[in-house]
Task: inverse folding
């Protein structure tokens, strides 16, 4: 049973990890992967932010090399370039965490097609392009590196609607979960897994207002908390353990799933 | 209890019904709506087919006027034009059935972004545009016409993945189901409902090969049937009753749901 | 397409219908079935109530014979007796609606095993016993009578937990939905369907307090309504159309499903 | 971020772990918990087996004390006695893994009520009793011990029916998942989490025949494998990582969930 100690089941040391999107959740995941001993590649727009996070990652990773790519997977070529950079730097991509995201809120009657489409593009198309490029790489990745693992960011909105102008966001996240199911099946025989994490609201620059002690944040939060049995919104720290689990050998027989880490929101 | 007889609960006579997409399922739904006494508007590409189906509908509807619009809801303007034509002809849209659909099969590594995007566009964007234009109309539709009802075509693939090159189709249908949930919530206070039907394979020109007595249809069907407890694929006739139910007063308190009419596929 | 008119798809005239449990929802379903032209058998405890509802049913059914059985399906023998009475009176059971229900509210630490077990017994065991006896009858029921249809009463609690002492109720209703899925598969080749309806709170003697204009009903309702996009609790009348749909030919290709008729509760 | 290293997120050392049911999966979980540095209490029927597994656990746990209780949670008193033994030995129960299970296969028309009831009793009632006793203990457990974590064994049958005589098993597992959702909500404010793991078939003395190279095992397995994208049935080793994840701090913000670890079965 030696291979089944917690140490080995959650061991990610020496893996090549690619994180696409290093906003709050992507950065937290990247830091945890660095602390776990991964070689990191991070991709996002914004040279200054990339450089700053790369510095953090080097510290968390005890000085290991960190590669940055200033791109989003907006086209097949962009996605290929991101994967190619990780492969060039670290020999392969063993685990990938895609944490891009966008939202435009608007009632369907008032929202423009462009605004709707931008949400679908960022939350669905970019993920598909990242997985396409990853899948092409996985096809030649040596089997002895173990199963390739991909974790993506869905949301409780992948399962639940919302009355306040969320047709785009809900469609994008539900769509992602469907893509994850299909990919899970498609990749099962190809030594790769696809899963997702579904958070509820977690603190980030975008949601910081909901953590405020004054209105409107306070009242919006209080209404929201009536739906969250834990009685609090979340922090990236609440989600990091699940990201590691989804990327570690512990979940090697799980695929096509979305795990809701939401203080009981979807259970209620 | 007079209002609760089967006659009144499923009464659609005199309603203005719009059907977008009159392939196999749209046509079957339109015929049933005509037989139920609706005034019909049908929208699709293909002038000859539209005219032919309009003729069938006039017969099924005892000579009632049938309006045709040679468009898909490809843009906001197209969708608005479809709704406007129905309103001009019949005073309002009371019930709408959207039955467009497209699929491109391909493993994610081999499929082009264009092929993926075309599926998302037809199965998700066009539905959103149709609902946007309908919602704008519903905002001024008289309350005394009863709840506006929209039924859309999802698929068992909205809940289940598939290993054989279905990332686009699964994402599009899951995405649609998420959009339906959000719309159900958003429209609840606006006198309108949004629901979907989720069929498994039904006979159509596209699927006819799967009903064949020779291979590959025969063997593909037999594999598929191991997953369908009913032991047979379906016909549009198996689905028509659910379409009527979703558009009739019988379902006025149901919204945001997808009903799987699939011979037990999703139950198994 | 003649067989696919609304008239034929929702035609229940001349069918032998059995309703087990004639509280609010069972009674409403029975009245709608009588109005639809069914021959009725009703089973419940309480001779006076049975007789009173039988009188109502005869009026709704234009004087058709109504059979009563003063039993619940508490044992195999009881369930067999209920089915036998319906068969003796009307030649067969074509459609069956089981609408029994019980709840004991209590935090798990405070609830007795007996209180928990009573909920499981009423909401799960009795349904299984009713289906067992029905299934034995269906095995010899002539195929030319069409598919036998069984509808059962689940709840939004079959999908959602609740923090206020609902382990028993949630387990019983989730369990029922699992039984419905298994039965849907098991009966698929046996000319019978099993489905369920999942309501949220509807007005009944048990829930009447939640419709009150004074507390605690008012405040409990208002909290509840923040979860129901329709902004109102339901009436049995909101559910009757779905019961008829589940029992009519319209749903002949659907099995193993639970339909949430809940003003958007599960969509939100 | 020091607290968010893989080491701390999955750290279970020094915890008091209770495992109820030490068949294949319970034993594997107990061994992993021992290897993770937990103090163990195991409860099951069968003195010889208990003693044998206790010996294994002492080895895996580097000689740590292991407590055995020769009971199932068949009554409130039994469940209380199991918890009391763990508390007496190790001061508290920090994490609990319930891995009891039973199945009787039979078509509903042929199965006895006793056979049905035995499945519900073992898979649902015993779990509820274990949780009741645990909950009573959690009420006085010091907050500084961290969140109490309970993991239970559901099955892909909690979400899927099966045509071959599974009404009892499917109802019991679906029921358990509903209980888990309710408990997740109920315990959220009480410093305790409830979640479940949903495996597909894994190798055990009960399922060993399905791993055979000869019929009927071979053909039953091959049919089953058409539904499992991974193309193989599972081993307890495939599930252990998820059990640890559900019991470790990594999942502290997740509750009321069932995680399907099934080689893609539920995704397909």
Result:
């Amino acid at each position: 049973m030696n291979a089944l100690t917690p140490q080995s089941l959650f061991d990610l040391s020496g893996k090549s990890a690619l994180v696409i999107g290093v906003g709050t959740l992507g950065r937290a995941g990247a830091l945890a992967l660095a602390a776990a001993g991964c070689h990191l590649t991070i991709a996002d727009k914004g040279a200054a932010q990339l450089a700053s996070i790369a510095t953090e990652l080097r510290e968390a990773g005890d000085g290991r090399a960190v590669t940055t790519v200033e791109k989003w997977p907006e086209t097949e070529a962009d996605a290929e370039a991101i994967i190619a950079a990780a492969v060039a730097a670290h020999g392969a991509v063993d685990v990938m965490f895609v944490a891009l995201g966008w939202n435009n809120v608007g009632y369907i009657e008032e929202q423009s097609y462009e605004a709707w489409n931008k949400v679908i593009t960022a939350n669905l198309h970019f993920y598909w392009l990242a997985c396409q490029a990853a899948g092409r790489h996985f096809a030649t990745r040596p089997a002895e590196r173990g199963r390739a693992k991909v974790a993506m960011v869905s949301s409780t909105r992948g399962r639940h609607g919302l009355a306040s102008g969320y047709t785009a966001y809900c469609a994008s996240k539900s769509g992602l979960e469907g893509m994850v199911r299909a990919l899970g099946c498609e990749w099962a025989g190809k030594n790769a897994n696809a899963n997702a994490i579904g958070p509820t609201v977690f603190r980030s620059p975008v949601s910081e207002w909901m953590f405020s002690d004054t209105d409107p944040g306070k009242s919006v939060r209080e209404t929201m908390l009536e739906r969250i049995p834990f009685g609090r919104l979340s922090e990236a720290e609440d989600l990091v353990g699940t990201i590691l689990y989804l990327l570690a050998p512990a979940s090697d027989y799980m695929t096509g799933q979305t795990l809701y880490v939401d203080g009981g929101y979807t259970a209620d």
Summary: Chain A has one domain: 13-263. The first helix of chain A runs from residue 6 to 9. The mean pLDDT of chain A is 96. Chain A touches chain B through 51 residues (CB under 8 Å).
